[in-house]
Design a protein that fits this description.
This protein is an alpha/beta fold and about 575 residues long. Helix 2 crosses helix 3 and helix 20 runs antiparallel to helix 21. InterPro entries: VWF_A, vWFA_dom_sf. This is VWFA domain-containing protein.
């Protein structure tokens, strides 16, 4: 097992907001909410062991829901960035919602924007007249909640809107906000900023568009909508709101309620007890029911049959199809040509690498390989998105010296998750100790990468420049109009950084950005960071641990591959992309 030592490029106190933001994205994969019991092991969530199995001595059990240590760490990070550069955080919040699928990050940035101090207040002259108005960044938080794009996954779900409030109400988060001056320090209530107002507006929009409200109920958000309405203190204008939610009402103690008390025709979802399989399928098709609506209503003597699953297929998204691969296999449905074609299409559209975990639960070798292909497709899509605006060529330099003993296998596993995402004609790979060796996968796939890396063993000294010279001898050329991104995998314990930098100059390679995938068995050096300083190019680093998270791989690839647009720019191209994101505006 490797020992990770995250030594930053510059001292923490000297790290600017851009460096902190890049660090957050590259090494911030922790999830805030978990739907199962877990363990808190030194601030890290782990799944709780089943049954009476012993837990580690320093671990404590935690209930399902918000994992507070991870929430505090993430919120403190974005709060620190906000304090250093409010404009950067405003653009990043807009970027997080519209350009990423990182649900917890959307919630955390939205929460911050709703309570932070720039709320459009008047700035007055000495005589009291209004000179101008401050920026209203709270409107960005409002816009994040109200943003709607039909059939898009890049907007806040009802659960996410509710979680914004739950996060702000967490005592540790409320304390951070008070310390930042975002709320009344003497108040016992947590600062919620504009959350209640915008949540009410969000609910009102769906009450006025009943098909939208009905769609959310069909998607399984009925109880979430009720919680959201209670927490926001929402007062519906019509009885239809309660009817769609199947929400029986009674008069309040104050006797002031006027809507929903009489004549309610509640929409209830009855169980399917007493219905035959054919009748259940007919009900599903006529009412266009979703999987979530049906699965809890099935009679025990019927269960989920192949016919019922077929009736439910139109309601499943591509992500659902991938997630339900073991069920589809068990029911024998993947042998049916039409269903198999639909499933194959879902494999092609993967945007994360969760399919690698699903593959462990299928029996067929062919299906496992197809799910691995979904992982490759997610990496390909991330690479294509990051390089859409610029011709990017990538060098991967893999340290296999003796100091990597114990860490090389972890490096190889991380590389199998990402290398298949690159077009072979734009990818150049070399391993090195004191001698460089050019590596070429036979095809662009996870299996081909594994085959290419299987013979690498840790031994020998460390000369990063040897890999550069090996690629040059092999005839690798980078077009003048292309941007070269160099990613080193290892512990950067080798020759002096200026010698590494000299190798690029001698071989005629103009580096646009330099990155390090940190994999440390014992001690760590500074060759790559020093080289970046010598070449005056952006430097970023990410721990190989991050590539174990199936959702983190696409995020990391996008951030690492965004080379700066102009030579000599010290800021990451990804940060440039964030700053180009238009600020969201509330409708």
């Amino acid at each position: 097992m490797t020992t990770k030592q995250n030594t930053p490029m510059i001292p923490e106190a000297q790290r600017g907001p851009a460096e902190r933001l890049l660090e957050l994205v590259l090494n911030g994969s922790a999830h805030l909410w978990h739907n199962r019991p877990g363990l808190d092991l030194n601030g890290v969530w782990q799944p709780a062991p089943r049954g009476n199995a012993a837990i580690p001595a320093k671990a404590t059990r935690v209930s399902p829901g918000l994992f507070v240590p991870a929430a505090v760490k993430l919120y403190r990070q974005i709060l620190d960035i906000y304090k250093l550069n409010t404009d950067l955080m405003a653009h990043f919040a807009s970027y997080a919602l519209t350009q990423t699928d990182w649900r917890d990050l959307k919630v955390a940035t939205c929460a911050l924007m709703l309570v932070q101090g720039h709320a459009g207040q008047p700035v007055r002259e000495d005589d009291g007249t209004v000179a101008f108005f401050d920026d209203d960044h709270r409107a960005i938080g409002e816009a994040m909640i109200l943003h709607y794009e039909r059939k898009s996954t890049r907007m806040l779900t009802p659960k996410a809107v509710l979680r914004v409030a739950e996060l702000l109400e967490t005592p540790e988060i409320a304390r951070l906000n008070r310390e930042a001056g975002f709320g009344d320090p003497g108040s016992k209530r947590p600062p919620l900023g504009r959350w209640k107002r915008v949540a009410q507006k969000w609910l009102q929009a769906r009450e006025k568009n009943l098909p939208m409200l009905e769609g959310l109920v069909k998607a399984g958000f009925k109880e979430t909508l009720k919680k959201l309405a209670r927490k926001a203190g929402y007062k519906p204008e019509t009885q239809a709101f309660f009817e769609v939610l199947g929400w029986k009402q009674k008069q309040s103690s104050g006797g002031h309620r006027a809507v929903g008390l009489e004549g309610l025709r509640l929409v209830k979802r009855e169980r399917f007890d007493g219905l035959s399989e054919a009748e259940i399928c007919e009900t599903i098709e006529s009412q266009k029911l979703s999987f979530k609506e049906v699965v809890g209503r099935l009679p025990k003597d019927v269960g989920l049959t192949p016919a019922i699953m077929v009736a439910l297929l139109p309601s499943l998204s591509d992500r659902d199809m991938r997630m339900m691969t073991p069920t589809l296999e068990e029911l024998g449905l993947l042998s049916e040509p039409t269903i198999r074609a639909r499933w194959e299409k879902a494999v092609q559209t993967a945007t994360d690498q969760r399919a690698l975990h699903i593959a462990k639960n299928v029996r067929s070798k062919e299906l496992r390989e197809k799910l691995e292909e979904a992982s490759d497709n997610a990496a390909r899509q991330a690479v294509a998105e990051a390089t859409a605006e610029t011709d990017v060529r990538v060098m991967f330099l893999i340290d296999k010296s003796g100091s990597m003993e114990g860490a090389i296998e972890q490096s190889k596993e991380a590389l199998t998750r990402i290398l298949a995402g690159f077009p072979l004609e734009k990818l150049h790979i070399a391993s090195f100790d004191t001698v460089g060796t050019v590596l070429k996968p036979k095809v662009s796939s996870r299996m081909a990468v594994q085959h290419m890396l299987q013979g690498i063993k840790a031994s020998g000294g460390t000369t990063h420049a040897a890999a550069v010279h090996a690629l040059h001898r092999d005839g690798v050329k980078v077009p003048a109009e292309a941007k070269l991104v160099v990613i080193v995998v290892g512990d950067e314990a080798g020759e002096a950084g200026d010698q590494f930098a000299r190798a690029f100059r001698e071989c005629g390679y103009t580096v646009a950005a330099l990155a390090l995938m940190v994999s440390v068995a014992s001690a760590r050096g500074n060759t790559v960071r020093t080289c970046a300083g010598q070449l005056q190019v952006p430097f970023s680093e990410v721990s190989v641990d991050q590539f174990a998270d199936p959702y983190q791989v696409p995020r990391v690839l996008k951030a690492l591959l965004d080379a700066p647009k102009a030579a000599g720019v010290s800021q990451s191209g990804w940060v440039e992309r964030v700053m180009r994101t238009p600020l969201l505006k509330a409708a």
